[in-house]
Write a structure and sequence with these properties.
Low-confidence stretches: none
Order of helices and strands: EHEHEHEEEEEEEHEEEEEEEH
Mean pLDDT: 91
Number of strands: 17
Structural class: alpha+beta
Number of helices: 5
Largest sheet: 6 strands, antiparallel
Strand content: 35-45%
Strand order of the largest sheet: 6-5-16-13-8-9
């Protein structure tokens, strides 16, 4: 069986660029559009950029093997100069299913964006946001007064969601976290864990007085009036990890991190 055609991409940071130069001459690489596998050098932010670039091109997504040259590197493998060919032959795939956010602005524009980690709605001014939340077209919160709210996937549950006191979701749990950001009323509502087949709708109350933006990972839409969020199973992504990496175990153990 012939070897997969591989493309090399790297973040613009000096460590990632230096690593890319080291690997460029040691392996045969093809242009990104011809690749069957991507090796990405950088941090978690660059991994998200790489995955989003594939989603936005709307071409078949291909597996990505990341090596950490950033800070946290939660979605990345350890950087090693040697043995890449053997490592790629032993990798384990993890499937990641993104969210699809459809946002309607106050001006009537419709914007649809993917989100791998989370979709978040955030107040734009000092005014508290007031939001109506629906689940499968049923109103479950007539009015949530807060700084914002987010919907996180299991892969993204250790990021912004966890910082907002949301739950960590194991990979493969088929769940989504619905987490308020600095909620004021209802005072006792601290979020919900939902099946990932749920359709979540968020309507902005008093949008002229209390403007709200919607953010899909790193992409922002300002002055939204409504946002609908669903899982997009047609655009499943594949991350490759060394056998010892155990992303699912790392996500679980984050609950016990000091």
């Amino acid at each position: 069986m012939s070897e997969q055609r591989r493309a090399l991409v790297a973040s613009p940071t000096p460590p990632a660029q230096e690593a890319a130069r080291e690997l460029a001459d040691a392996h045969d690489w093809v242009p990104l559009e011809e690749a069957e596998l991507i090796v990405a050098l950088g941090g978690d932010g660059f991994m998200l950029q790489t995955l989003h670039a594939m989603l936005e091109r709307r071409k078949p997504v291909i597996p990505v093997f990341g090596m950490n040259l950033g800070t946290v590197g939660f979605l990345m493998n350890e950087w090693q100069r040697h043995g890449l060919h053997d490592r790629l032959a032993r990798t384990r795939p993890f499937k990641v299913v993104p969210l699809a956010m459809t946002a309607e602005t106050m001006g009537g524009e419709i914007v649809t964006l993917p989100a791998i980690n989370e979709v978040s709605l955030l107040r734009e001014t000092r005014q508290t946001a007031k939001l109506e939340v629906t689940l499968n077209d049923r109103i479950v919160l007539p009015e949530l007064a807060c700084d914002g709210i987010l919907v996180a996937t299991p892969a993204g549950s250790t990021a912004y969601n966890f910082s907002a006191q949301g739950p960590i979701l194991p990979l493969g749990s088929a769940m989504l976290a619905l987490t308020p950001i600095s909620p004021f009323r209802p005072r006792r509502w601290r979020g919900a864990i939902l099946p990932d087949k749920a359709r979540i709708g968020i309507r902005v109350l008093e949008p002229d007085k209390r403007p709200v933006s919607a953010v899909a990972d790193q992409r922002e839409v300002r002055d939204v009036s409504r946002v609908d969020i669903v899982i997009d199973r047609a655009r499943e992504l594949t991350l490759l990890f060394d056998p010892e990496h155990a992303l699912d175990d790392r996500i679980t153990m984050e609950q016990f991190a000091a």
